[in-house]
Amino acid sequence: MLQYYGECAIVSYFSAMPGNTIGQSLVLTTYGESHGTQIGGILDGMPAGIDINLDLVQLALDRRRPGQSHLTTERNEEDKVTFHSGLFEGKTTGTPIAFSIPNKDQRSKDYGQLKDVYRPSHADYTYDTKYGHRDYRGGGRSSARETACRVVAGALAAQILPQISVKAWVSAVGPIALKVPTADLDLDGIDAHPTRCPHPETAGKMEAYIEQCRSEKDSTGGVITAVALGVPVGLGEPVFDKLQADLAKALMSINAVKGFEIGSGFAAAEMRGSAHNDAITEDFRTATNHAGGVVGGLSNGAPIEVRVAFKPVATIGKEQNTVDKDGKATVLAAKGRHDPCVVPRAVPIVEAMIQLVLADHYLRNLKYTR
Amino acid sequence: MLQYYGECAIVSYFSAMPGNTIGQSLVLTTYGESHGTQIGGILDGMPAGIDINLDLVQLALDRRRPGQSHLTTERNEEDKVTFHSGLFEGKTTGTPIAFSIPNKDQRSKDYGQLKDVYRPSHADYTYDTKYGHRDYRGGGRSSARETACRVVAGALAAQILPQISVKAWVSAVGPIALKVPTADLDLDGIDAHPTRCPHPETAGKMEAYIEQCRSEKDSTGGVITAVALGVPVGLGEPVFDKLQADLAKALMSINAVKGFEIGSGFAAAEMRGSAHNDAITEDFRTATNHAGGVVGGLSNGAPIEVRVAFKPVATIGKEQNTVDKDGKATVLAAKGRHDPCVVPRAVPIVEAMIQLVLADHYLRNLKYTR
Amino acid sequence: MLQYYGECAIVSYFSAMPGNTIGQSLVLTTYGESHGTQIGGILDGMPAGIDINLDLVQLALDRRRPGQSHLTTERNEEDKVTFHSGLFEGKTTGTPIAFSIPNKDQRSKDYGQLKDVYRPSHADYTYDTKYGHRDYRGGGRSSARETACRVVAGALAAQILPQISVKAWVSAVGPIALKVPTADLDLDGIDAHPTRCPHPETAGKMEAYIEQCRSEKDSTGGVITAVALGVPVGLGEPVFDKLQADLAKALMSINAVKGFEIGSGFAAAEMRGSAHNDAITEDFRTATNHAGGVVGGLSNGAPIEVRVAFKPVATIGKEQNTVDKDGKATVLAAKGRHDPCVVPRAVPIVEAMIQLVLADHYLRNLKYTR
Amino acid sequence: MLQYYGECAIVSYFSAMPGNTIGQSLVLTTYGESHGTQIGGILDGMPAGIDINLDLVQLALDRRRPGQSHLTTERNEEDKVTFHSGLFEGKTTGTPIAFSIPNKDQRSKDYGQLKDVYRPSHADYTYDTKYGHRDYRGGGRSSARETACRVVAGALAAQILPQISVKAWVSAVGPIALKVPTADLDLDGIDAHPTRCPHPETAGKMEAYIEQCRSEKDSTGGVITAVALGVPVGLGEPVFDKLQADLAKALMSINAVKGFEIGSGFAAAEMRGSAHNDAITEDFRTATNHAGGVVGGLSNGAPIEVRVAFKPVATIGKEQNTVDKDGKATVLAAKGRHDPCVVPRAVPIVEAMIQLVLADHYLRNLKYTR
Which H, E and C letters describe B157-186, residue by residue? Predict the structure, then answer.
């Protein structure tokens, strides 16, 4: 234990909130509270000389922003990203790319009712216990607003890998599940419907279900499926940094995610080896893709396919039993503007985390190749 | 790009296999190929002065070893761990704990048939492509033998946290699923049956199914469920290092794992917020535990509950279509001794990875608390 | 090596410039080019609930800024730092502290002459070779302007450790060396003279020498000495992360530094053990401090004392022989406003790096202590 | 702060001793106490397919071992390294290379007198304070025995870079300094004399001085100079991971080192810019090398030249004033076999740390180059 010369005492602190960094060769660090003046980040490790289309970055951000359709929260936040370094005349310079997004529409008064109440399935109580305070105005760092920075970084990372295409879409909303095989979907039509489900009939049912949840002051969960096409053979490492492990960490770090599958996922547990194994064909491809594009922790060149489960939004208008800061029972019916279903807006976040992981492993892997 | 004075040329290499390290405050690095002389590891960051019961470590290892029951591979490897540093008179000294396990039963001849063939759903082709070679005798670093080192480290990590109890069990084998709620299971009886399913009736059915798969030269997948009891409030960080994200990475890094869920998992996607939210009671606990013990990325004091899906073992005796190194079609019927179902032996591995993640976050979290 | 399905080619890049991060528990990442719109950084890992005096941060920055005295460059950059996150009502919240400093006075025209010339003892040629470009307007990331961000972070870090006092001063300028023992210096009077030498007579001679160098269109090197008082016993780790090793890395990462000493430094090489050993007294202190406050890699409670050597500024008005981008011999006499001697302005940078290392090790060390 | 459900209390620990790892792309972790059964390490990140000559590794180790000449300690430890993984048929496989060295000659009785006494200029008191215990038998992790593992790793790292030659030699012992310019030395003759000074006349004087110190039961410090030839242009990063910063950290982490210089070092502080600048010649080389091979944090292709100062060995036979564990004054005259001067044996350690840093940066730098 520390001991001092003289009279000095050891100072005791509440915890910090580290863990704001992800990636190894391509490293994203984010900052900013939901109700501060801005959020932002630094993306370090971008190779020099890459052409960057900033419109693609803003476009990704627009797909995540609140108020983009009648299905999302009514908050109309126009998220405009500004870049402060690392870019010159349309190209990366190799230096860290810093960026920020102002927080514009901060209606703090909406949150007054939450000052002394611990919301069910929120981290209010754990924050007070661990950090000695919490930001009742909107979650501080635990707010999903932080994910806007991930979208910016993912859209930059994607431009390292023009040969790889990452597409995510909504494959379930509550009990409404998309039953069509991936190969039969029009992945260019994902944004055609505000639900981001590329199957119009299912999308219509999802929309109706979301509207019903909203009208009942309730919320619903959902599932996002994503594929990455054009991934080279050999991304990932054989032991702890298996590609599926790093994808799982990245995607499970998105707010409200409760489950992750790659390839056959939980269905694999019910299968026989003779049915699950992907036969190798004479071009070193596979006849099926139960593996979801990863074997032994390394990409095998087949499409990477993952599924991510989101729980329903915890903040709802319906009355719920809870307690206040003193542990006294109370009833909470949340005011304010909240999405009844986050999955349509979470699609670009899922894409961004996959893009970051693939670009990171791509750059890690280039290390010794010439 | 690098440039030299004089005549020197840049040397070109095949890739290394980094990523042999996990953890931040409690750091495990493993080494060793399945068919080398030994495997082992270094566990760095163990605080000084902790009582260590080495019998508990060997016990955990015995639960993972091949040949422990009629359900597993016939290889009878007696895995004996030796410690080389970091322990003195039954206590940790704070220095790195190094350990090794000899590889005894290396019947390389069993693997001769695999020298020139790429096995379906194995990483043979990706290894050859990325590293310029592969260890056809048993996978080298991609072999599940590496997980013996994780079990050693997990059993050490668990002794930092005597107040936390981590229990894993087999909850599904192929189509045979355990339907009994966790609260009604006898978690002290997990090892009573070789399947490690703590419900005798279901365990019997699982056993019969595994035997059937073996007799048909086939294999089956399965699911392991795990709980951690006694976890303090506040483990985890709010952004990328959410507790569920680090658990997901650790568990998805186990060979053959294809899916991960925490709490309600994929079922959450079908639920309404009003049904999913865990009401907070007057003792700051929760009436239900759909969260699985984690809110906002931090433990909330409720039991942490996760589920992990394992695909069926890829190496089977049945004939499969594949190709050789030259891409020529061939048929493979694997010889050698392989488990028809790995989940009973994977139970201590799942426990170990959870123990490592919890101990790591516990030590990270102690940082500023006094 | 990477191999692709289909037609995709591997893209080849120039290097990135990673390594913009320092620290383990208290982590600083900086960004920004000398001639971009702003520079800034993120300081992650500040415990929650610490009182922060922002005036002390600006004060430290003012001590580093150009144009603060007649001895420094004539550029009068008013460096005003703005904070974007991590602070609320005068206290840290535990979240990352992001900050930025606008670049105001960018007279790029001064640099036009350097576009095609490789300056002696600058990294122009190595940058062009490694990154495929360089920022001739002022060095980009290699510019000492980046150190302003270190000063901000150091002044924040210092407020974790109010019991520790870090003081640096100029102890040599060219051949003019301060011969007075540290114990006899008035360390509160460092800023009384623009040279930041706390001995008025020596300071006067240094000032005259710097003016002479300027008048001769030349520059001079110098030495900064620093002490840290009130450091608790036990900071540092015994092997690679010895306290002196991390101090050396931090201080040698400052532009223009060519040497580092702790305690007796190079003089120790000439001494006998019987003369060098610091006898331990009955209060567990030491009678002398040749160790400079660190034994076995750990602080022993005595003052930490280090010395840092700065080379003369490379950009001078005098004519020098060099080559242009095509390797053709040319003569360069640099225009623009450059310090003839950087050590007076480097004093707060040295203090900042020491504060960052001590705070980082302090937080690392608190891990298991209660 | 952590809070628990139920009755559990937070456990309080003494510190761990982390920091046993160095490097980023080429990562060395070491373990083992001086009086345990063995020491060893894991070197992770070696690319696959590199030819390794194990005799060169043992040769490097033999140059470090005690008892190799009449100038060193009389302990005759035969350090034989064994490799456990990562090598196959004379080549690296890309997997982690684990190795160990048995501790043979552990005469613990020599250390009995030190059990209750705090040795001057040792970390006994700081260890007891921080870790709650110390290994009085020989320092545990703080013992220089740990450096044998560095020598093994350095000798492996060197074989990644056959085009680079790293040579270190003794350039001062106490007041006896080598005055001959590096260019005039026979660097192939370093091992011709037991002092490892490549200038026979100076070597003889050093030898006599060391013998005199031994006969007076005293010790002496010294200086090691090292050069690296054939280093490509562009190793290092511009900000915190400057090549000289990482070299300084690596070399200052060697036991007993008190000072580090690169190129002109402290002499630079006395020089004018016009004299110090290295003029660039038409082949993009430099006419002089005051930079010591590094500009702007990056190697420029010129020889890298560094100097490292070692303090005299603290354990001496002469009587010294100190205190026991209770703070009571006592007199200590150390028994046992200790080197009067460590610098001859430290030569391979200095070389190893430089080889590790250069190989690490080489592999980091290859990342994006093709």
Answer: HHHHCCCCEEEEEEEEECCEECCCCHHHCC
Q: Would you call A85 an interface residue with chain D, using a CB distance cutoff of 8 Å?
A: no
Residues in chain A within 8 Å Cβ distance of D14: 1
Spatial distance between the Cα atoms of C74 and C69, rounded to a whole number of angstroms: 9
* Count of structural domains within chain A: 1
Whether B151 and B350 have beta carbons less than 8 Å apart is answered as: no
What integer is the mean pLDDT of A177-193?
Answer: 95
Kindly give the residue spans of alpha helices, DSSP state H, lying in chain B. Answer: 54-64, 124-131, 147-157, 200-215, 243-252, 273-276, 343-366
A367 touches chain D (CB under 8 A): yes
Residue A12 lies in a domain: no
Residue A52 lies in a domain: yes
pLDDT in tens, D66-76: 878 887 765 66
Q: Considering only CA atoms, give the Rg of chain C.
A: 22
Q: How far is C184 from chain B (nearest CA, A)?
A: 37
Neighbouring-strand partners of residue D48:
B14
Helices D243-252 & C243-252 angle (0-180, nearest 10): 160
SS3 letters for chain C?
CCECCCCCCCCCCECCCCCCEECCCCEEEEECCCCCCEEEEEEECCCECCECCHHHHHHHHHHHCCCCCCCCCCCCCCCCCEECCCEECCEECCCCEEEEEECCCCCHHHHHHHCCEECCCCCHHHHHHHHCCCCCCCCHHHCHHHHHHHHHHHHHHHHHCCCCEEEEEEEEECCEECCCCHHHCCHHHHHHCCCCCCCHHHHHHHHHHHHHHHHCCCCECEEEEEEEECCCECCCCCCCCCHHHHHHHHHHCCCCEEEEEECCHHHHHHCEHHHHCCCECCCCCECCCCCCCEECCEECCCCEEEEEEECCCCCCCCCEEEEECCCCEEEECCCCCCCCCCHHHHHHHHHHHHHHHHHHHHHHHHCCCC
DSSP D92: E
Q: Is the minimum CB–CB distance between B139 and chain D shorter than 8 Å? A: no
- Give the gyration radius of chain B's Cα atoms: 22
- Residue D130 confidence (pLDDT): 85
Reading the block at residue A2, the tokens are 């520390």
Residue C262: closest CA among chain D residues belongs to which residue? D258
Residue D164 inside a domain? The answer is yes
The pTM for the full model equals 0.95
- Does residue D101 lie within any of the structural domains? yes
Say which of A2, A29, A365 has its CB closest to residue C44: A29
With a CB cutoff of 8 Å and minimum separation 6, the contacts of D114 are D124, D136, D334
Instruction: Give, to the nearest 10 degrees, the angle between helix B343-366 and helix B243-252.
Output: 140
CA distance to B20, B366, C65, C92, D82, per residue, from C159 (Å): 37, 21, 21, 10, 49
Q: What is the CATH number of the domain that holds D245?
A: 3.60.150.10
Sign of CA dihedral B45, B49, B54, B60: negative
A281 touches chain C (CB under 8 A): no
pLDDT over 90 at D267, yes or no? yes
Residues 199-218 of B with CB under 8 A from A: 213, 218
Report DSSP state, residue A263: T
Range of the domain at C96: 17-368
Enumerate residue ranges in chain C where pLDDT < 70.
Answer: 1-13, 73-77, 105-112, 136-139, 337, 366-370
Chain pair A-D, CB pairs under 8 angstroms: 37
For residue B136, the model assigns a pLDDT of 67
Residue B101 to residue C140: CA distance in whole angstroms: 51
Give the C-alpha distances (Å, rounded to integers) separating A165 from A44, A228, A305, D265.
22, 6, 12, 51
- Contact status of D27 with chain B (Cβ, < 8 Å): yes
Residue length, chain A? 370
Task: Look up residue D30 and give its two tokens.
Answer: 């070491």
